[in-house]
Amino acid sequence: MPRKALTTAAAALSLALLPGCVSVEAGDPFADVDLQRQDYILAAVVSPARPAEDTARDAARKPAEIVAFSGLRRGDTVAEIAPGGGYYTRILSQVVGPEGRVYAILTADRANRPGGRDAIDAIAEQYGNVEVVVVDSYAGMSLPRPVDLVWTTENYHDLANGDIAGANRAVFAALKPGGLYFVEDHAAPGTGTDATATLHRIDPEAVRNQVSAAGFALEAESDLLANPADPHTARVFDYEGTTDKFALRFRKPG
C-alpha cells in the first residue's frame, strides 16, 4: 500500500479506536491507544501477506479495532485457542513482531484428523514466530512458557460444551501475573449455555460468570461487533446476515 494510503488508513483507524467503542467498569488502560501501537496493528491488517479470503472478511470482523481492544502489544507472547484457518493467527504474528511469539493451540482430536493441521502448519512455516501446540484438551493445556495474552475468537461456545471450568483454570495458569484473556463470540443473550451446541452462540453473561469464577477480573467489554438486527434465533452457519457478537477482556490479578 502506498505511504499516502497508509497515512489515510491510519487516520481512519485512529478515529475507530476512540474510547466510545467500549464499556468499562473502572477505566480502560487501552482506551487511548498510542500512535506507534496503531501503526503496527494497521501494518499487520494491511499486510500483503494476508490472503484475499481473509481480507474479504475484514469489514465484518474489524480486526484492527478488535486487536487494539484486546490489549495485545509488540513483543508479547500470545496463545491463540482454536486458530481455525488462521485468520487471526497471521495478524497476531505480525502485531507481536519478531520479538514476540504466537502459540496456535489445537486439540489432538482436531490435529489428528486428515488435513486437520495443514493450514496452521503452513502459517507456522511462513511466519517464524508461530508455533503449533497440540494438547489433549484445553482443560489440560500446557504451554512452553507463560504468556501475556490468551486469545479466542468465535470458539468459546465450543469450549463451553466441554470442561469449561477446567479450560478457564488452564488459561489462568498459562498467563503471567497481570496477563489478559480476550474472548469474542456469537451472542445469544438470556440463553445461558443452552444455545452453545445448537445455535453455536453463547450468552455473554454466562461467559462473564464462568471466566470470573476462574479468578479473572472483567476489565472491559466492547460493542464493536454488535448487531441489534440479529434476532439470535438462527444457527450461526445458517444466518444470512452478520451475527451479533460480543468482545470481553479479562485480566489475571498480579
Characterization of the model:
With 254 residues, the chain is α/β, with parallel strands linked by helices. It has a single domain, classed as 3-Layer(aba) Sandwich (Rossmann fold). The protein is built from 11 helices and 8 strands. It has helices spanning 3-16, 35-45, 52-55, 58-61, 63-70, 87-96, 108-111, 118-126, 156-159, 164-174, 204-213, and strands at residues 22-24, 77-81, 101-107, 130-135, 147-153, 175-186, 217-222, 245-251. Helix 1 (3-16) crosses helix 2 (35-45), helix 2 (35-45) crosses helix 5 (63-70) and helix 2 packs antiparallel against helix 6 (87-96). Residues 1-26 have low confidence and may be disordered.
Attribute tags:
alpha/beta; Rossmann fold; eight-stranded mixed β-sheet; 11 helices; 21% strand; globular; methyltransferase; SAM-dependent_MTases_sf; signal; S-AdoMet-dep_MeTrfase_Alr7345
